[in-house]
Amino acid sequence: MEIILLLLFYILPLTYILYNLFNFINQRRNRHCYILNYQCFKPSDNQMLTTKFSGDIVMRNKNIGLEEFKFLLKAIVSSGIGEQTYGPNMVFHGRENCPTSDDIISEMDVMFDDIIHKLLTRSNVSPSEIDVLVVNVSMLAAVPSLTARIINRYKMREDIKVYNLTGMGCSASLISINIIETIFKSEKDKLALMVTSESLTPNWYSGNDRSMILANCLFRLGGCAVLLTNKSSLKQKAMLKLKSLVRVHHGGRDESYGCCLQKEDDNGRIGFYLGRNLPKAATKAFIENLKRIIPNILPIRELLRFSIASFAWKWIYGYGSRKRGLGFRPIVNLKTGVNHFCLHTGGKAVIDGIGKSLNLNEYDLEPARMTLHRFGNTSASSLWYVLSYMEAKKRLRKSDKVFMIGFGAGFKCNSCLWEVMRDLKDDDRSNVWNESIDMYPPRSVENPFMEMYGWLNEEDEVTFDRMKVRV
Hints:
Strand content: 15-25%
CATH architecture: 3-Layer(aba) Sandwich
Oligomer: single chain
Largest sheet: 9 strands, mixed
């Protein structure tokens, strides 16, 4: 009788508690999101958009005149983009005004075949082992979908979970990471493949609207494939571990929604519109995103310091002091919880603006500036080129924290924090920076467009026909 009572009142409840505790710990272990490997795309050298060839492309556009060319000159010179960036094949064949369906699909196929094959080979992973596939290419909705093309090309399993994202803009890769993270929280021991890129071929603008032709100057060819897992057995092989991810969407605000979108100009030509209020919309989304993620990534001591400093500032100057011109409020020091900053390479002004807002120095901004100069704005994949630069420079050490910030149409601002799981010293030839990393940062990143075409700013009386002859 005593044994039965002991069993009922002590042993069984203790066993039940230990069983649930074990399940809880085991579940928590498998909810982590690790990056095992990633591979950025490096097109062939014959796809480089040199200064002269970029000028030739502009000359082929019969819809622009001298004033539009001057505007493009000023935009390119101040963009921070060099002349080693890459463009789609159709511009080299003179088909930017009428790309074929083969041009559109082959651009994606060449990229996917390169980065996915290299990634899986480096990681020693078979395509049949992939449990989740997420592809984001904002401005292309193919039928069958791009995910279907990848599944068919690599003969992946029939039960693979598939997500094909379009229209998500330059911040789409972090949205894809968020989808994978959510799946990992409910299913254990999974492998996920995330592919991020942008389709330039069908979205080349051939009109003369300045707010739409600017996109031709900024966006360049690029892409990246990332292999992720939540298998605790692969933790020792992981490169990065996701610590926090926050998404902010201001699509409910008309001024934010309309600042960055695909539309037709007055003549019916489709292009990508960049509005004047884009910086204002980006700033609002950026501030809202920081408010949400800062408590997750900074140590308590910095949060207390900032709170006390803010309270003292308000107590001394009052809540209306900013309107009276009494200075700015105290600034939170992100470097107390972050070692490296992966910034979206939307343009020189974007990088400068984020750097000023976060009080970053040139060392912090160097990876984003050099990525913009070398590869241009590769849309959602740009963050991974920045990360690859840090790896090539051997900056990433075990336990370092990497902060990623991305902006996208909608308007969206997404950010996340990664923890480096081991010293990253990529010495093989798979890193897109390895062949040129010793040349960066260069002494000067000025765009050679000014040297070749700068005379236009001085000869206002020149006609566009004469300009073509001189060039």
